[in-house]
Every structure is written in structure tokens, then in C-alpha cells.
Fold these 4 entries.
Entry 1:
Amino acid sequence: MMVRLFVISLTVGLSIGSLVALFAHLFVQIISTAQYLGQQDYFGSGGYSIFNHLTPFLWLLGGFLLVRLIAKLFQVDKWQGPADAIYMVHRADGTLAPRQGLATMLAALASLGGGASLGQYGPIVHMGALFGSLFQRLSVRATLSNDVFVGCGVAAAISAGFQAPIAGIIFAHEAVLRHFSARAIAPIAIASITASALSSWLFGSSSFLQIDIGNYDLLMVVPALLMGGVLFALIAIMLMASQLKLAGWLAASRFSVWQIGLAGVFLLGIIATAVPETLGLGMSTISAMLDGQYPVSILAVFLIAKILAVLIASSFGFVGGFVSPALFIGAAAGGMLALCLNMLGFDISVLLLMVAGMAALSATIVGAPIAMVMLVFELTHSYDFAVAAMLSVVVATFLSHISFGHSLFDQQLAKRNIDISKGRGHLELSARNIKDIITQNYLGFSPQTKAGDVLDAMVKHQQTEAYCIDEQGQYVGKLMVYDLVRAKVSETAGSLAVADQISLTVTDNLQQAIERAANFVGETIPVLTEDSHHIAGVVTEGDLFAAYLDCQRDIQRIEHG
């Protein structure tokens, strides 16, 4: 068994890691090529003529039209994302819909290739989760749970995207799986290391954060890093809250998808005309900011324009991630803070605060502070620099956690009435319907039935409870054996029925049923239809205990193999 498990873990890790590395590189190359083509001067006008500014509008329009075409061809009205992967691995029977996932990948390619101001790492992470979910269907489910396969894909995606295998492993556990399993760590680590090694071997190093840190006194920059953490938290909270509110408002508005999308194309085109650096992924602009090529005034313009562009792109119909925008916004905010402090006479490393801002914004949005600190360490190869960045990261994530939520993805799920913070047990019980465990093993009597006849039937069937049901089949109340024993001969079931007993409805889930039954004393609980209050069946305390234990076994299998 041990050898078999090791072979399966090795095979799964190597296969998913290799597959994700190849497709992640292909994904990035397609976007880079499309964005390069979108920057060409097709009108031959040169300079800053009106014709030169038409290209961004046309490229954005083309991207949006492709997104709508993909939605129609694949018949999807909702795109998947990291939030769906997080929810899926918290379910024992969770899976990602392949068609919807593929459509999301293609829509992200169209959006980012068209110049939408979103990121590539979110779609790559989702691609890794999708590959892991698909690979699970071809593998032995009894050996490795679905969260292991998804974890392999997520870790490989981060590792291939940044060539940071340790950060990939931690990100998978911290941001997606939300637990550590000894059985899961081996295949996830193998997948992450394989993706990084294969990507580096085939395509070379592509890290944009290969920078010379220089020497600095950590103690002297602690106040600036703490101040930066507060600033980065405020920016991240504002960005996430604005995105959720704007997207919700547009979804509830009377505007059609086409009207919203075309408005987004126009607004993004205006921003691209005024501040072209904010269009697309912005990786080259991030590198220029790290090189110190911009003054504080330009960084302020970049910050405001990028936030507006991200809000528009993410809310008006384009598809993409938030990590790349977070890196851009974090670098601009960190650079602004450092330059302002330097103007006031403080000797602060601009590069240090920029990287701290990038890590803090990303960690706050995706909910992975440790992974982002480790990412800084792997990309900069500086322990001191990672420790310094950690100050801003922990302050930003702490403030965001207590005032907004764990991450943007958690809040997206909360909008769907899914509370990840309550754990797998709550989610699993909430996903199971009470009607799956109801039985018909109960006694029912009309209101006119004599008390003596009811008592005789209960003794015969060895029941201590029965139910009064009228001629229309509606529930009247519960009949208790001790009431029937004391009843007069003339009394009927209708006069003895107790209507204020605990009851459930067929639409209740197991979590709701257990909460309502917490103070219940008796044998069975009636389950009623929601509209007509007909009795659909009953559940016993034993039924609820058995369902709860079954749920716990599923969670045990996920978290501990």
C-alpha cells in the first residue's frame, strides 16, 4: 500500500506539474503576442495623432467581442475563478465544470490579449485547478482526494508563473486548500518543483523581480514598513470593496451585458489614451518603477488610473485575475510613500517599500501572506528583504481581515451565501438536503380519530409519537403517548395535537436541521413541504447523528487522507 501510494503521488505530481508548466507558458505567450500586436501603429500615423489612439479601443473591442462569442458558444453565463476552486476543494464531492472552466480560460485569453487591465496569474491558477480536477477523473479517487489534485495544479501554476516552487506549495495550502495534510504534501511538492524546473529548463528564467537589494538597516525602516502596511491595507480594502459593489450594482441594473461591456471598452480606451502604461498586464511598467524611472507625481497618476482600470475591467465584462494589478498598484503605492518620506528627510529605500507594497497588496487580495513573503524570498534571494516585506504584509492582511474579510475570493463566495470561514463541516452539512434522509416510518391520523384508537395503534406499532393530519393532508400537530394515556374517551386526535412542536421543511439543509434540533426532546421531527405544509416525512435524532458522522468521515478523508 505504501509503495502504491508513493508511485501514485509521484505520477500525479509529475504529470500535473509538467502539464501546467507547458500550458502556463503557452497561456502567457499568447497574451504577450496579442498585447504586442495591440501596441503596433496600424494606421502609420506615428506620434500622438487621433489615429494612433484608435488601436487600444479597437483591440479592447475585439477582446470583448471574443469574450461574448465564447460565452455564447460554450453557453455559459458565469465565469469560474479561484473562488470556485476554493469552494470545490472544501466539498467532498466537489468538482469544476470542464466546459465552464475551458470557457473561462479562453475568455481570459481574449480579455488580456485585448488589453484589459487585469492579471494573468489568477487565470493560470484557475487553469491549474481545472487540470487537477480533470486529472482526478482519470485517477484512483480512493487513494487521493480531489483537493490533492487541485492543490497540485494550483501549486504548479504559481511555481511555473513565478518560478518559485516553495511559494507555490505554500500558496496551494494557504490560499486554496486551507489545511495541511501529510498525504497531500508529497504530490503537491512534486508538482510545484516539476513545474518550476521544467519551465526554467525549457523556457529559461522569466522572473521580473531579479533586483539588487543593496544594504539597509532593518531597524531604521521598520516605521516606514508599518506605515506602508496601513496604507496598503486601505488601498486593498478600497479596491476589493469597490469591485464587489460595482459588480453587484451592474449585475442588478437594467443595462444589458452588451451595454455594460461596450461602456467598459469606451472607459478603458479613455484611460489607455491618457495613461497607456495602465493598459494590459503592466509588467514592463512595474520593472520601470522598480528601476526608479518615475517621480512621485507619475506614480500617483499610475496608482489612480490603474485602480480605475481594474475596477472597470473586472466589473464590465472582462475576465482576468487580480495579482498582476495588485503588483502594479503595490509598487506604485510603495514608491509614492518612500519618495514622500525621502522628501521629508527620511532615508528610506524606495525599492524596499515598492516590493513590500507588491507583496502586501497581493497577500491581502488573495489571502496568502506567508506565500507572498516566501515569494519575495525566492525571487529576491534575500532573507533580510523577505523579513522586511513581512512587516507590511502582516499589518495589511491583519487590518483587511478584521475590517473586510480574509480575501477577495472569500467575499465573492459570501455574496453567494457560502461562508468558507466556518470550515468544511459547516459547508458540507449546508450542502446536504434534509429530504435525503427523511423516512415514512410514522403514524398519521385524522383530527376526528378517537384518542383510544390512536393509543391502540401506537402500542401496536411500538411508537410513542404520532401525527395529526387533516383531510387535505396538511400537518395539524404531534400526538404524544403521555397525552393520549391521560385523555378522556370523548377526546379526539385533533384536540390533543400539539402544533408548536419543532418542525423542518424539505428545503432545509442538514446544518439548519441540526441547529433547530439542538434543544429537541422526542423521537421524530416532522418535515413539511414549504408551500402547503403537507407532511413529507419525518427524521429521527439518530438520522441526524448518522448524517453528521457521515459528513465528518468525508471531511476526515479530505484533510487527513
Entry 2:
Amino acid sequence: MIEKYLIKITQELNLQPRQVAATAVLLEEGATVPFIARYRKEKTGELDEVQITSIRDRLEQLEELDKRRQAILNSLEERKLLTDTLREKIDAAETLSTLEDIYLPFRPKKKTKATVARDLGLEPLADLLWAQDPATDCEAAALPYVGASIEIDAKKYSVDDVAGALAGARDILAERINDDAEARARVRELFLNKAVLKSKVISGKEEEGAKFKDYFEWSEPASAAPSHRILAIRRGEAEGFLFFRLTPDETEAVGVLDRMFVKPGPAAPSSPLSSRDQVRLAVQECYKRLLSFAMEAEARSHFKKNADAEAIRVFAENLRELLLASPLGQKVTLAIDPGFRTGCKVVLLDRQGKLLAHDVIYPTKGASDQRDAAEMVKAVVKKFEVEAIAIGNGTASRETETFVRKIGLPPAIPIVVVSESGASIYSASEVAREEFPDKDVTVRGAISIGRRLMDPLAELVKLDPKSIGVGQYQHDVDQTALKRSLDDVVVSCVNNVGVEVNTASKNLLSYVSGLNSRVAANIVAHRDKNGPFRSRGELLTVDGLGPKAYEQAAGFLRIRDGQHPLDASAVHPERYEIIDQMASDVGCTVTDLLKDTAKRSKIQPQKYVTAEVGLPTLTDILKELAKPGRDPREKFESFSFADGVEKMEDLEPGLKLPGVVTNVTAFGAFVDIGVHQDGLVHISQLDDQYVKNPSDVVKVGQRVMATVMEVDIPRKRISLSLKTKVDLTPRESRPRNEGGRNDVRKFSDSRSGGGQRNAPLQPDWFTLAQKKH
């Protein structure tokens, strides 16, 4: 590990050198982020997953920077252009942009105006102008070059007059200014700090691009533009409806260059156009023709990267909340995928989520079909002792829920509406075909609904996170960065909860620290062939699962009723000996320690501190002994929508309804209130107090009480509020600035909750997430 990396990261992340160094070594040895955070606290000084991930990502970025640095050095050396001074500059470059600025003058160039001028022999004239000697007679100096000519690629170039010679010299100077590293750095800073984002509609596209109409004439400081707006405008441009620029004031930008390259002093009286003035013209030409476009491209990339990071952060936070949603647990479950015309697909799952039976009922058709459906459901519930009923939240969801609640089932059986988002993608996936090769997609979809109620995490890991429907502009952001972030979230959640090795699918096992899809498949195959694992140690007999993978994975895998009582806990097997010693010192067995609070209270953790094991690990062990293998997720609480409110026509302003947050974005939150269309709670309506970040006050899956503000049935839009006091005055009648800093502004920052690429952007915040993402 290169020492300079560690020093730089230590400074950037405000950490101790030993923390960064230890983490870097562990990562280099193949340790995963969850493993380091959970089981190597003494080495890292108790860094959390976020800090460890930051170190990992920054190490990779610096390694990539050094790869580019070395490539540049090799190129310069091969062309015999590398000097000691140049090498020092390259070695000292701390960012990719600085590195590229240094290399730019030496980069092999294609034909440019400046290269043509040099080939015409105009560089001495350019040097003379560059000196800006007041005594220089520019016209006289240019005269000897008139008549010069060359042929490049069968095309003839010539200097026809004095003006042509001076223009060619200025082309050389413009490129020289453009290649100056300090000039680029200063203008870059100006673009990043003072560029204005301006967008316009492309002529003739007004009607076709109406969904972007708020950006037909838009202007704001780029540094203040929120991520969702930047991404919306970029999409408008990508779809051919908008044109946008990112530029600072041109006079200020040219002034920066002028102060750098134009020497002070009056023009020479003998010449109407002095060499100083020629340089000033070269500065202007450089900015307008070269530097402004290069810096605008960099600014676009910079603000896009920042917008991506924010959108990915929002997506990752939403995904974490969804994956860690409360599980109902292992219950015999009847799952229903609702439908009108084709009926409701019904599946019966055992406590391990295995399919026992499936059928179709028609509870929304005629009286005879309803009676048959009721009898079938009641018979199945009684015969198989069904413990829970899951109903998908798609088409006919509320009607099916009402039907099930009215047929006289035991009140102790929870009837839960479950999000179907992504279920159709799962049902047609290779994973579903492998699990249920002889079942059609409708049956697979109903199975997924039931399993999501039992254990959301175990079921959702089978899906590409992007299809779950909790993102914002997910198809517009950097896909590599998005996948990395979402994979990190899934891995974090899976290992935080822990995995039951004898029942988990290979999809779930593949996210366990130290494992991959191949080893996960081998674990399942070994389990199927030899029966359930009886101890964690038996995992070492699985093909491909060696000591290193076992070290990483063992603590996150659970074996209920195994040979060792701690195999069901989060205590790592490498620490079993310490607990055996604790039990011996107290005069009992490990099982007694797990059951008896009084015995655990006698343990003095300081006695067991060693060079490898410190108080942080011992504290974690004692907490785990108190609640071995406890699921860290919140306890499941049943939820139901308001009776009698099943469609948009049932809504009216002022109505208060229970709802579930389905998506959180930078501009608000979408809430399912049980009418087949999600309503939007704009950021200005999330709380009585000013809200800067919606995720500070609401989370995906959170139950809320929302007030209906406005309903637009033709356009299928619902506006909601979570404030305790809601102003129901129509928006057009409200005084301006009524809402303080969270006032509604006319932004195209709303879209379907799933963030699909082709979902239309609405003309204001009063928008609606479509139920089917």
C-alpha cells in the first residue's frame, strides 16, 4: 500500500493514520466491509461501514489516478519529452483534472488552427507578440510571413496578407493559453462556482416536449441547482426537447485570463494595434473558441456527477429502509395476487415459504363466483391453519381486501396489503424460473407477494434493486456507481440481519460476507444432499468454501438448534473460546449464560482483553449473549387502509387517511393511501417545520397519517400533506410566499415514484407516482 494514499485519505476523512492503514490492509487481504466493521473493531478503531466504504472507494480512486499518471509518464518518456521538472509536476498532481492540464500541452494533437500556423512558420511571430514589447510594430513584424504556404493532407494553406499572418500567430497564442495549467484551473473554478444553468426549448418542440415546459426558459446558478432538476434538464436535452448551457459571465471569465496574460500598460502610440492588444485578442479567441467549451464540458460532467451522487444516495437510503422492513416471520401464509378480469391468483405457502397449493378465485364477479371464492378461502384457512393473508397492492387490491375482510375469517389472522413493486419482474426472471420451472408467471408473482410479507429482505434480494421502485432518475445516473452503491446496501442489510444457512436461498446466501453465487449454490447443493448443517464448522466441507471465506462468512450465518448454542448468534466462532472461558469462570455452561441474566452480570469483560480482542468486541459479545441471534429489524405491526376509501373518487380535500410511504425523493415523498395511485407530499408539506432533506423526516415503509389537499381525477394526481394544520385554499388563491423557505416553485422535479426512464415529467410539483412502477 502506497503511504501517500494513507496520508491523503487520513486528511480528507479526518481519521487517524492507524485506522486508515489497518483498514487498507484488511481490504487488501480480501476482507469485506461488513466483516471489518463487525469483527475487526480493535484494528480499525471502531470505524463504521460508511467510513470503511469511504476508505475503500478513495483508495480505488487514487489507484486509478496513479494508473493514469503512469500512463502519461510512459507516453512522455517514449516521445523523449519527459524532463525532471515535468515529472515533478506530474507526481505532485492530486486530481485527474490537474494531471490532464499538465499533460495537455504534450498530448499528441490532431490538426488544429495552431498546428497549421506552426507549420506555416508563424511561431516566431507568435513569440514576438507574446513578449508584448511596446516598441513592436506588429504589421511590420508580420510582413515577412506573407506568402508562406504549405500542403497538408492534399489541402493547401497560405498566408495571404498581414492580417492573415497575425491571425495565425494569435491561433498559436490561443492554444498556448488554452494549454496553460494555471489558466485552466482558474477558469475551471469560475465555472464550478459561478456558472449559470440556462435551458431553452428547441424550436418546434414546444408541444411534443410539453412535459419539460417549465424548463423552456429556465435560469439559475448551477451550484445551487438540486440534483433532480439537473437530471431533468439533461434528460430533456437527451430526448431532443431542450438545449442547455452551463457558463459564467463571459466578461468575468475573459477578465481572469486577461489579468494573467496581458501585460499592463498603454498601447504603443506608433501602432494602432500593439502586441499587447494582439495578446488580448488571442485571450478572447481562446476563451470563445477553445477554453469555454472545454470548461463547460468539465462543468457538465462535474454537476452531473454531483447530481448522480445525490440521486444514488436517495435511492440507497430508500432501498435500505425497504430491505430492513419488518418481517412477519415464518407463518403459514395465503397470498393473493388480485385481478378483475383474470381473477385473483391464490397460493398457499408453508412456514418456510414453500409452495403447497395454488388456485384462482373471482371475488369481484357475480354473486355465485363470490360465494365460491369465499368458501374456498375459508376452507383453506381452516384446513391448513393459515396464520396470515398477504394481498398485492395492484389492480383490484382494495376490492379483494374488502372481500377477504368480510367473509368471516378469524380476527387473529392479519390481512396485510403488500407492495407488488418488481414482483412481475421477479416472476419472469431466471431466478423464478429456476425456483418454479413448472409454474406460470402469475403463480410466481403471488408466491413473491406472500414471501415478501414473511421476510422482505430474503425475497427482495432476488431482484435487481433498480426494479424495486424506490429510486429517483435511476436510469439517468452513472450505472456503474449506482450498482456499486446499491450492492453495498444489499450486502450491508443482509449481513446486518444475518442469514439462516439451512433455509436461505442461494440468492440470499450470495450476499453474505465472503461468499459469492458459486459458493452459495454449493452450500444449497450440500444442504440438499446431506441434510441441514448441524454446526458452522461443517461449512468448511462445502466445495469452494475455504478457511478465508469461512472467516468472513461464519459470523453472519445462523444455524438454529445447532450443536453449539452460539451457532445461532452473531458471535464469531473465532471467539467461542473466550465465551467458554467466561462460562467456566462463572461456573456454568454456555447455554446457561445465554439463559441466565444473573450469571452474565458476573462477567467482567476487562479480564478477557487480549492483544487481539479488546473491549469493543467483548461488549458486542455480551450484548449478543443477552439476545442471541435476535433479528435487528423492527417488530412487525399490522396496517390497513381506511375502510370505504378505495378509489380516487372517494377522496375529498380535508380527508385524513392512513398511508405508507412508498418512495422518498429530493422534492418530497410519495404515499400509498389505498386508492391505486400514490399521492405526493411535497417537501413543503412534510412537516410543520422547515425541511431541508425529506429523508430526515420520512422513510420508505413508514406509516403516516396524511391529509388530502387536492385531487385531480382526470390527470390522476393527488396532493397530500403531513402537516398538523393544512391550508386547503386552492393554490391559485394562496398569497405568495405563504410557505416560507419551502414554498412551491414551478419546477419539473416530479415524476413517477419508480423513476422510470420514459415516465413523463410533470409541469409542477403536483404530481403522482403511478402505482405500477
Entry 3:
Amino acid sequence: MSDASDLTAQIWMWKGLPIAYYHRGDRGPAVLFVHGFGASGLHWRKNLAGLGEVCRCYAIDLLGFGGSAKPLPGQPLQYTFETWAAQIVAFCRQVVGEPVVLVGNSIGCVAAMQAVVDEPAIARSIVLIDCSLRLLHDRKRATLPWYQRLGAPILQQILSVKWIGQQFFNQLARPQTVRKILLQAYARSEAVTDELVELLLQPARDRGAVDVFLAFIRYSQGPLPEDLLPVLPCPTLILWGTQDPWESIDLGQEFAKFSPVQQFIPLEGLGHCPHDEDPKQVNSILQDWITP
């Protein structure tokens, strides 16, 4: 079943804040899915439905996204990978209660890796799906020609003006804009459904959503994938859509050279979110990895 109609958010309190998550399955190994920027645990709805038959599956909404709390930055937490990693570690300990297989997509990969590096005991292994290369990061920009380094800082400065940032966010948080972005990210246009557009748009209407968005757009620090991959303490699988327009598979293949990576699997004809574009294929690969 591909829709989210039979998934009900459960609430876990973390640091006094409500955190939403979804759960499917009551037997087998534990799996925790971590979404990417602008998404939520429901982005894994098709994977929960498939793998929930053989695994205890959880999909969490990171702080600031989905149905989770969206406090103003700094009240009491900043939107950083260290914050999200701490959230993941606490969830594994308090809700799951056993080591998990962590599965991330895009920036969710970075948050998941940081969590495992911070607390190795939470994970049996980790799966990275089209990991974000974080091109807004200061160290990434430093490798670009000078004329390519200027755009992002200027945009970040402009968006720091509250009313400009609000207007920018309002333009993005429209069905037609979200659909256009998804059609760029997804190689399979048929996967860009009205249901998908709405599940991404709904949290954007929450109070505080614009502050979360702008806080992350201005976030140019923290770990990069190449910082975390060499020190991962568990076996690692990388999946990558060959048609990802945002994160090149050529760069992704460089990640496969790090020693924790046991497998690198290119997914032909898929884009930035293969788990949602072709859940049957991805679920099969995940099941083989989780339950060999």
C-alpha cells in the first residue's frame, strides 16, 4: 500500500518537545528511517508498508519537520546535525530499545551518520540513500571557482531579512512549486502524486516552519559526509540513483572507497529519492541487507 492513510503519527516527548514518528511491524530486526530536508517520516510510507512485514520499522520526524515540534532556533535548540543526531540516539534508546539498522536519505544520511559516530551502540549497520553532499557548506564552497562562491552567501544574507525570507518561503510552499521541485528531483514523474505534494506541504503550514527552513538555509557549518564516513563504526551500504540531478553519482561513488562501505549499489533510472520512486526495488535491497 503506497498511501499514508493507514499510518497514524505517534508522539514521543524529547527535551519537553513533541516528536512525531510512525511505526509498522512487530517482529524482526529494528529499522529506523531518517528523512531528508523538507520531508518527514511519511516520505518512507511505502517502505514501512513493505518492510513492516518482516521488520520492526520506525520513521521519525526530525525536530522542525513533519509533525514534530518547530521551536524557534535557539529556543531551546539549534537546527544542526548534532541536534538531530542527539534526537536519533535518544529515540533509539527510549523508543526502539535495541540496536537498529539506520536508513537515511539526503541530509538524513548525515544526521544518521553523526548519530552513529556519537553513539556506536545504537546501530547494527547504516544505509545511505543519495547522501547530501552539502554544497552550502563553507568548506564545499571554498573548493569552487571564486565566481561560483559568491551566490550562496549573498542569498543567505538576503534571506536573513525576515520579511524577504518569509516571502521566499511562501513562494516555495505552494503546490505548483513543490511539484516542480519534485519533478526535478524524481526521475520517475509518475511517483510525483498529489498525495506526495500534500504530505510535503502540510507541515509547511505549521507555525515556525519558515524559521526552520531559513535556519537550515543559513547553516554552513557542521559535518560533511566525507568527515563522517571514514569513522563510521558499523557496516555501511550506499544506494544511489543514477539520474540524481542534485547529488552526482560520480561523487557518490567516491564515498564507496571509504573502508566502512561494504556495498555501493547504483539504482538505474532513479533520482534523488529512490526509496519513494521505486520502493519495491529498494525494499528488496534493504531486506537482503537487514535480514541476509
Entry 4:
Amino acid sequence: MLARVFSVALFGIEAYRVGVEVDVRSGLPGFATVGLPDTAVKESRERIKSAIKNSGFQFPTQKIVVNLTPAHLKKEGSSFDLPIAVGILCAEGIVSRNIIEDYLLVGELSLDGEVRPVAGILPMTTAAKQTGVKGMLVPARNAGEAAIDRNLNVFPVQNLHETVMFLNGEKEIKNRTGCCVVDEDTAAPEDILDYRDVKAQYQTKRAMEIAAAGGHNLIMIGPPGSGKTMIARRIISILPRMSEDELLATTKIHSVAGSLMKGGREIMRQRPFRMPHHTISYVGFTGGGSTPRPGEISLANNGVLFLDELPEFPRNILEALRQPLEERCIRISRAAYAVAYPANFIFIAAMNPCPCGFFTAKDHACRCTPFQIRKYLNKISGPLLDRIDLHIDVPRVSFVSLISKKQEEASDVIRGRVCTAREMQAIRFRRGGIVTNAEMTGKMINEFCYLSKDPAALMAAAMKSFKLSARAYDRIRKVARTIADLEGASEIRSHHVSEAIQYRSLDRQLWMDA
């Protein structure tokens, strides 16, 4: 007998419907799976056989052929266990054929018939909705994530036996659709980290505020112990909450990566803060591999990517950042596939000015030779620095500042100003398809970052003095626009430009002095 069940397969962060055709016929006992299955799919036959028997059903002693369509696309993972098992039972007449094609089935089976969670449920439900099916059967532990899509009926199943009873109309399962995505009252609060814990460092905190308000990239250069990492970790506390579109896009990436299952979460309510170690592999950073999975660059989408001790990262990893910082996505091309992952994040970097760390320190002698300093700084290429909008010198905090009783500004206060600036940008770009000033194209820069006579003269002098590139010129204008937004000004004035310029001068001075 021939039976057909439908499931969903992942390709990158997108999904497509897969037909699971099961033919049980006379012949020597065997179990063959065709249609470009990977190792995990091929190994499912032993899990499926045990699950069917341990669920109280008879496993056929005939030849079984499973075809996964479309046959030219590779099928990966363990999510086909449940549809294949149901297809076998349907071919044996145990499961009714009346409604079997009205649902999509996804889930991994344990040997006792339990339906276990799988990665990538959210993009799967998006694909399911587009097929026009009545609903989707998912593992119970994936139900909360699947129910984010309000336009799809989601039925959580605990085990294979319960699935069969539901499809035969012998048991009713409550529909889990209609999950509220954005709920301020139930949204998880930000980490306890707060800028009120950071003593002094007012210029650095000001730069962080500008970076958060305009989505700008930032690099901090300073000696060890100056608070670079401490300051970077707290930028999440001043970023505005994600919109519904951002929340869904972020959740989709983390769903495919499997990090939602590991963390026991159903949805990403906080902006991601990714801080990979400098020993990370190239594939782990950019994404890809034999199975196209998102890397750290994409996992930071709509959040922050922080690289501490920047020169310690391999050169190929640092240069891989150049394209995502420009295009807000990363393209991974292989012989068999090409995948584009979103990579719209704020890039924050921290580094010492030399191997010993004290080249710019006023209270500590540097032990490095000029050759060592230049070699260390040259690990960061000029094109990469040009793509970073704000360059900050982070000095060591004095003892007097450390013991000061002065109350520092809290993150909630800074976030209020950031949200106000973001609201101005939302109005400005309501038809532009972007969110922040940092995303502006050349045409938008000319339209929204116009410089009158005095600011233009100041900009011309800076270009000549610091030998800035055309890319740096555009980025200074973007930063000046953000500074004006934080001030509530409609036009960019001279003091906005002068502040933006000072955030570009450090890299030129430091690299030329070395």
C-alpha cells in the first residue's frame, strides 16, 4: 500500500514543504529511504521501528520504501521521524487516510515513541502557513515557539500513539495558536547590568549612547583594566526593545541554530549580545558547514556582536566582517548551495594599543618596541577600521573617581534618550525600509545629512588634516545626524560635526604614531 504524508525541511533559515511517500509492499524485509536524505534521516529507520513497536503497533515485515520529495533537494535532521512513522502506519491501514494530507508533521522519535523537539520550528510554521494546510503537528516542547504564528493551527503531540489517535479522530488536542509576540508586561527584563555601575568614563558612555541611538559600530582602544568589556556588556541595557518584526526575525535565526531548545526558551525577547572567543573557527563565526547553519555574525542579528581583544582574532575572521558590516547580511556559497543570512547588528570591538597594553597609558611605561607596536596594530586593516564609525580612547579610571560617591547616570535614563532618537529615525525612514541612521544609503545620506556652509567647512578641514577616506566622510555625516537626533535638532550643526569628527581621529593618530 502507498501512503503520502507531508512535512517541512529547512534550508538555511527558510523552509519548504516535503512530501513523505511510503510504499509498503511484498518482498524481503527492508527499509530504504531515497530523495537525498542525510545520515540522520537514514538512521531514522531504527528509531522508527522501535517507536512503532513500543507504541503498541505492529511493524510491517515487508519491504518499505520511503521517498522524500522534491528529490533534488537535500533532507537533513531528525524531524522526519514522525511523518515517516505515520506514513508507515497509514500504509498499513492503522491511520485514517481521510485527513492525513491536511496536516504537516514534524518531530523526532525516541525508542519508546516520545515525540522530541527539533530545531527550526518557527521557519517551518511560516512555510506551513503558505501551503494552506489546516494545521501542523509539532512536538509538545516546540508548541510555544510554533504558536507564535497566529494564523496557523498548531497541535502539540507528546508521543506517536497520541498522534495516531488524533489523526483517527479518537482524541482531541487543544489548538495552541494565538501566542502574543510582543507583551511589555511579560517580556523578560534586561540583565541587571547597568551603566550606573560604571565610574567616570563619560566620553565612552556618550559614544555608547550614540552607537545605540544610530546603530553605529564602535571600537574602544585602551590599556587593560580601563573598563572596556564592562562598558560594552551594558549596551544592551540602553537599546530599545525589539519590534515584532525584529523579534520574529531574531527568533527564527536562533530557532534554526537550536539555541532556543538549549536555553529552554520559546522566543527571543531580548536583543542578542554575542561575545565569541578569539579561538572560534571561521565556520563558527560566519556560518555554513556541511549543513548551512547560522554563525555568530547572524546570531547577533538585531543585537550586538562584541569582539574583545580584537587583534587576537585570526585575520581571515576579521576580514570576513567587511561585507556584513556594509550589506547587513552574509552570503555563504558552496558547490551545492548558496545561503544568505541576515547580519544586521551593532559591532563593538575592544583592544589594547600594543602587546603589553600601555602604549597610550599616562601612568604606566610601555615595554614594547615600535616594531612590536606597529605589527600589533597592523593586525587591524584600514578597510575594517573605515567601516567602524566611532573610535574611542578609554583611559584608566583614577582612584579618586573609583571611590567617588557621585551617582552615575542609570541605563534607563540613557535608554529614554536613545528611544526618542530612534523614534525620530522611524519617522524619517518610514518609507525607506531601514530603521537606523547607520543603515542609510548614499542617496539617503545626501538627503538627510545635508551640511550647511559652516559644518561643511569644518568637514573639509578634517578631511584634509586626518586624510579621511570617502567612506569615513559618509560615516561622519551619519554619526553627526545621530548626535543631532539625540539633541532633537532638525539640522546638522557645526558642534554635531565636530563631535562626530573626534570619534574618527583616534585611529589615524594612533596608527600614524606607532
